Amino acid sequence: MALACREYVTPHRAGTKKDDYERLLAIKDALGPIMARSKSLRFKAKALYQVKDLENELLNPKAILAASGGVLPVIWLNVTWQPGDLPAEDLRPLEQQFNLKLLGEFVDENAV
Questions:
Q1: Of 4, 23, 24, 36, which sees the most CB atoms within 10 A?
Q2: Is the pTM of this model over 0.85?
Q3: In the CATH hierarchy, which fold is given to the domain comprising 3-108?
Q4: What is the spatial distance between Cα 47 and Cα 83, in angstroms, rounded to a whole number?
């Protein structure tokens, strides 16, 4: 089964972990209608505060910092789905709403 993936970062600097948690919940809520249309869509989102946090997620700190304008904390988002189940354009409103910067888009034709 093939899988498509997009990874994003938002340079949103909430300032408190409570604010970041609320922003993560807002992202989850905004993904709800998209998930209702795409049964295969899954996501993972995290607030990342230090370079060590990026490394623990196996993320490239240079790429994240370049996308965020060199600032931490950031909110990182991974969205994964089966190709053909969701047009990537359906993510555009989410990208705009949360100022998401695309880190990369990948398709793995041999995903399990």
A1: 4
A2: yes
A3: Alpha-Beta Plaits (3.30.70)
A4: 27
